[in-house]
């Protein structure tokens, strides 16, 4: 069992640090400088040596480490319009809750992938650039909110297309070896004026994914999303609570353009099987299922850090003791110098 090293900086840098530190610690004092005690020099040399040892990251081989690797980029495109606040998912819950739950389930089923979160209402916004930090995705989903209902200006279900296309092309150019999948999560409701624009994404850039639809054809009432507001969004033409209805035809059109399946999501379906039911091309499937074990390594740098902490505490105590001793000497000397000289009367010792 041989000792191995994984230095945090190049060996030449460590050598230069050792030489400079040795010169500073053991250089002879100047003409007017007091000589350092040998104990202090040895202690400071020990600090330098232990720091350098820790920086080399010594270790021993041992054990196996299970790795889940994934050369996969996952783009989550999520609808954040007010209609996603309609309460027709899982018996009174909102569509938005269902979409966020599915997004978390997708991330859990694809460990090790890189994730990006793009949302859209009247415009598209990249909430999270591609990252391998699943916790960052979880945080982004936790704090994600819907557009404010009082400022809603209508939305297009395909408004995020150009942003998604640009992100896919950028990643293909930067990392052509990685596979890219797209999950679109929305209700398909088109409230913007004009005809529905195509979802302008080249399907050749997409290695798989799915379009996930939320809501019902019967529709659901939408709660207001203004801060502090209660109640439901009203239909201005009738004054009654407005209904938002799932539009599967728009979602199916997006799925055809991306060449991925469309899945109508309900609570009864459960979230665990989403990835198993979507299309993944060969490269995406391989990237999503790459699990392997590699030889482990027992790190030993912490032993040097423990010794370093002990010497650092000794150095701090010695420094404080030296400061205290110096102050006492200075104070004692000052008190002696401030005592007035003893004078004797002029006729002291004389005869009366």
From TrEMBL:
Region (Disordered): 329-352
Keywords: Membrane, Transmembrane, Transmembrane helix
Signal peptide start and end residues: none
Domain of life where this protein originates: Bacteria
Keyword Transmembrane helix carried by entry: yes
The VWFA domain, residue ranges: 73-191
TM annotation in the entry: 300-324
Coiled coil: none
Name of the protein in its database record: Ca-activated chloride channel family protein
Source organism per UniProt: Lapillicoccus jejuensis
Lineage: Bacteria, Bacillati, Actinomycetota, Actinomycetes, Micrococcales
């Amino acid at each position: 069992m041989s000792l191995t090293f994984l230095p945090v900086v190049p060996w030449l840098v460590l050598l230069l640090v050792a030489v400079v530190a040795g010169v500073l610690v053991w250089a002879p004092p100047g003409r007017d400088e007091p000589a350092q005690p040998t104990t202090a020099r040895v202690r400071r040399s020990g600090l330098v040596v232990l720091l350098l040892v820790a920086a080399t990251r010594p270790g021993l081989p041992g054990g196996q480490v299970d790795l889940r690797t994934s050369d996969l980029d996952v783009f989550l495109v999520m609808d954040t319009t007010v209609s996603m606040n309609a309460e027709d998912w899982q018996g009174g819950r909102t569509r938005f809750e269902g979409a966020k739950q599915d997004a978390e389930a997708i991330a859990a089923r694809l460990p090790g992938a890189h994730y990006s979160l793009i949302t859209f209402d009247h415009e598209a916004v990249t909430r999270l650039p591609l990252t391998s930090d699943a916790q960052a995705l979880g945080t982004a989903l936790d704090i994600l909110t819907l557009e404010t209902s009082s400022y809603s200006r209508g939305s297009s279900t395909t408004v995020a297309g150009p942003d998604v296309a640009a992100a896919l092309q950028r990643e293909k150019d930067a990392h052509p070896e990685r596979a890219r999948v797209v999950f679109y999560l929305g209700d398909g409701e088109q409230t913007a004026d004009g005809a529905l624009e195509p979802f302008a994404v080249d399907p050749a850039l997409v290695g798989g994914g799915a379009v996930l639809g939320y809501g019902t054809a019967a529709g659901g009432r939408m709660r207001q999303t203004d801060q502090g507001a209660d109640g439901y969004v009203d239909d201005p033409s009738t004054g009654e609570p407005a209904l938002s209805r799932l539009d599967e035809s728009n979602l199916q059109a997006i799925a055809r353009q991306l060449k991925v399946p469309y899945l109508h999501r309900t609570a009864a379906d459960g979230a665990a099987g989403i990835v198993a039911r979507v299309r993944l091309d060969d490269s995406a499937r391989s990237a999503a299922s790459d699990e392997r074990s590699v030889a482990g390594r027992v790190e030993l740098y912490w032993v040097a850090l423990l010794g370093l902490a002990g010497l650092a505490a000794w150095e701090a105590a010695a420094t404080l003791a030296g400061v205290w001793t110096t102050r006492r000497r200075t104070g004692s000397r000052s008190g002696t110098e401030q005592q007035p000289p003893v004078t004797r009367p002029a006729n002291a010792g004389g005869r009366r």
